Amino acid sequence: MTMQNQTEHRSGPLSGVKVLDFSRILSGPYASMVLSDLGADIIKVEPIEKGDETRNFPPFHGPLSHYFIALNRNKKSISLDLKSEQGIEIAKKLAAQSDIVLENFRPGVMDRLGLGYETLKKDHPGLIYCSITGFGKNSPHGNKPAFDIVAQALSGVMSINREPGQAPNKLGLPLGDMAGSIFSLFGVLAALHERNQTGHGRHVEIAMLDSLIAMQGYLSQIYFVSGKSPEPVGTRHPSIVPYGSFPTSDGYVIVACLTERFWHNFARCLDREDLITDPHFALYQDRLTNRDELEPVICTRMQEHSTDYWLDRLSEFDVPNAPILSIGDALDQEHVIRHELIETVTHPVAGDMQVVRGPIRFDGQGPDKSTPPALLGEHTSDILKNTLGYNDSEIEKMIATGAVASSN
Question: What distance in Å separates the CA atoms of residue 392 and residue 405, rounded to the nearest whole number?
Answer without folding.
Answer: 14
